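chain below, 281 aa
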Amino acid sequence: MIPFKDSQTSGPVPRVTIALIVVCLLALGWQLTLSGNASSSPELAAEHVSKRDQAAIELGAIPFRLTHPGSECGIGSEGIVCGEDGLVEAGGTIGTKIPDDLGQAPWWVTPLTATFLHADLLHVAITMLFLWIFGGAVERLIGGRRFLALYLLAAYAAAYAQSFLDPAATGPVIGAAGAVSGALGAYVVLRPRGRVVTLSLVPFLAGLLLVPALLLVVAWFGLQLIPGASNLASTDIASGGTAYLAHVGGFALGVAAGCLLLRRGRLRRGTPAAPGAVPAG
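prediction:
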């Protein structure tokens, strides 16, 4: 079964959602131009760091950097090494030189830059599909500016939720799934009975079906348990795997924001949201 749009499509075109998808795809195109071979920097190449890994380290959200503002990271024989007062090899006393070509973005902006990087094509396809369905629906309900603010706040909430789980982690986390989880959380509050138009390829049930959106929200989190389909992943140079708590952090922020918007009546006039919702005047 392939979901492709919310059942309620009335309202303005979700321009912010479309813009976010376009930026993510442009970033993916840039990532694909980066070679999987060794970095052009001799120092990074000596540690078997590829150009793609270098980009992830420079722009990804590294938990250690987020929980230790002002810290630096370098590449040692054991992988990524981070510290505040000089870098040393894990378990040793030999200083680890920070490669001159490792131009890391400021720590406070990496939760944002990380949302535009993705691990692979399946990664970006699933994430953008859910952003289109749920992000577009939420944007129609609350407006483009509020949705953009929700998306960005969810990105930061996701990055810090994962960082507080393991503050010493040095593997960069990339992907838009934490921010997209924020859109899902808001959707659950604003349209708890929402349905999604889904194309069924199941024999005897082939065709278009209306599926409760809550089932897709459950499926979203279930996908994170499938190797290779996880939507917020570490890069090759890190330990790999999925940053599960990041999804939870983004989703929780979305639920909280949805409740706040609903309580204050900050919805577009005439939008089919939750029962009893009061549209803004």
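The longest helix spans residues 121-142. Confidence is low (pLDDT under 50) at residues 90-95, 228-236, 275-281.
thats it, cya
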